[in-house]
Amino acid sequence: MDAEGLALLLPPVTLAALVDSWLREDCPGLNYAALVSGAGPSQAALWAKSPGVLAGQPFFDAIFTQLNCQVSWFLPEGSKLVPVARVAEVRGPAHCLLLGERVALNTLARCSGIASAAAAAVEAARGAGWTGHVAGTRKTTPGFRLVEKYGLLVGGAASHRYDLGGLVMVKDNHVVAAGGVEKVEVECSSLQEAVQAAEAGADLVLLDNFKPEELHPTATVLKAQFPSVAVEASGGITLDNLPQFCGPHIDVISMGMLTQAAPALDFSLKLFAKEVAPVPKIH
Q1: Phi/psi of residue 208, each to 5°?
Q2: Widest CA span of the chain, in angstroms?
Q3: pTM of the entire structure?
Q4: Which pLDDT does position 282 carry in this prediction?
Q5: DSSP 3-state percent helix, strand, coil across the chain (nearest 5)
Q6: Which stretches of 129-197 are assigned E, i.e. beta strand?
Q7: For 167-183, what is each residue's pLDDT tens digit?
Q8: Would you tell me how many other CB atoms lie within 10 Å of the CB of residue 281?
């Protein structure tokens, strides 16, 4: 899906509410900076100062649109960033540029970091000759899930379940509470549980926290008995060990670290008065 298609997935009302909450969090009261900067027209250049994948343009746009500023992008969503890169320019009242600066940079940096991690994971999986789906999880930052799931998609990964209603998944604790696995069960810790889940009609069996040497034999046996059941691997999977989990009987590999451990990219927004925006230094 291209960037325009991804943008259509963002509910306008939800996006506007998120932007409003972010701006209120950063400036809940009187904006003293506005008294200093004033309302005169100004412009600022957005610079990328670390390599990675650019993601988060709809959020960046929505923040500055709400502040009566206009954003002009020089690079498309999903671009590979080679620092120092001039990514965009923002024009509007000086105090509005400053009001949106930190919120917009935080959002873009976080979203781009997740897209970069997702792209690296997909590249590692393809390098191992695996053609299944690399996916994220619900291990996201409260209040920031929309941004992080969007970043996964830009990076080429699957968002997987967006929320608890996106897919009925009975976890291990649910099994204990129910007293067994005679019902449809997805998260499994043994071959026996996986077979019981498949017999009960599960569409997707999650082999959770299996070591690679246990994962692949289990998936092989399960697929031999239930060819139509999809198999997902999850738990302890990182960019370094990802290739070990790739195999012909694994359909999905979900990685919580894509949203929990992805480092944010480094961006800066620099106001300028001259025709040519000065290039920032990388520290």
Answers
A1: -100, 130
A2: 71
A3: 0.86
A4: 75
A5: 40, 20, 40
A6: 133-135, 187-188
A7: 444 555 655 554 554 45
A8: 8
